[in-house]
Every structure is written in structure tokens, then in C-alpha cells.
Design a protein that fits this description.
about 200 residues; alpha+beta; eight-stranded antiparallel β-sheet; 3 helices; 10 strands; about 30% strand
Amino acid sequence: METAQVKAPAVKRVLKAIGTTLLMLLLAAVFYVAVILGDPQEAEQSVKPLVDQPLLQASPAITIDGEGHLAALLNPFPAPVMCPLSGSGLTLVSGISYDAAFEDGFGRIVSLKYANAAGQEMTVESIYPARALSLMGRKDYHLAGVAGQTLAGLRSVRMENDSTIRLHAQAEEAVYVVTVPKMESSELIAFTRSLQLFEGE
């Protein structure tokens, strides 16, 4: 009789532990489904950067101060350029295309500076060739403990410093770098979803 009484609490403890574990698994599954449904992302492309892209001959820098001259920057760039979709509510403040010494030749950088309705400035850079990660510069950035948002279908790496967030993604033909002030996650998602890859004519 005593043995049966001793076993009963032990069985109850085991059943309670199993029930608690199942409940935790169910809650975790509900949480992950809610996160995925609440924040759908573009399908990320699996890309392999080209390693044999030729370097460039140096050319004069080009600067612009409005959307009307954007083609002057995009056309000479030898890969797709990342920029926001038209109608995204962002204003192009300035842009520059310039060459930077890389290996035994030159790489090219197109840097576009935009402002949102609140006056916050955001920079979108396209860097050629795709292997020229060193042209991003490290500055005082450190890896963030958060996954980077998708940039035009590309998986990005998120880095931060005291005041800004930097996302960079490596594509087949170029490296793309987005720098924004610290902002809410929803604002960052809205901005990164407005980005596209555009090829000059």
C-alpha cells in the first residue's frame, strides 16, 4: 500500500513535467508562426559572388544633387545599383560615383544619400567588384546580435555603432551597403523593402 502511495506522486510529477514540456513547445511554435506571419520577408536569393570580375581604369568622379541626374551615376556602373523604388517617399539629397584603389586597379562606388519625411538621412552604396568587401571600411562598427533585413532579396549582415545601423549584402556582381540612423524595427523593415536593384542603360 505504501509503495502505491509513493509511486502516485512520482507518476504525477512525471506527467506534470511532460505536460509542461508539451505546453512550452506549443507556445514556442505559436510564437514562431506569429513572427513569420507578422513579418514576411522576401525570399532570399542564394548567390555566389563572381571572383574573376575585371578591375576598372580610373575615371573622374561624378556628383549629382537630385533625381533628374541619377542616370549619370547608374549608367557607368558595371553592375546593378541598389536604390529605393520610386514612390517610396524618400528624397534623393545627393549622389556620387567615384573610384577607389583596389588590388592592382580600381573598384567603383556609387553612394546615394536619401532623406525621409522626418529629415533622417539614409545612405545606399553599391560597390564593384563583388569581392571588394574591404572598400566598405570597418570604422567603429561591430556585429549586432540581430539578423540583418533582406536587401532586394539578398541576405544581409547587420552591424551597428552608437548612432547608426549598417547592413551589407554581397551579390554576384557587387556589394551593397545601407547605412541608417538607429530606428525602430518596423521603420527599418519598411525602408529595406523599398530597395531594388537597378541596371543602367
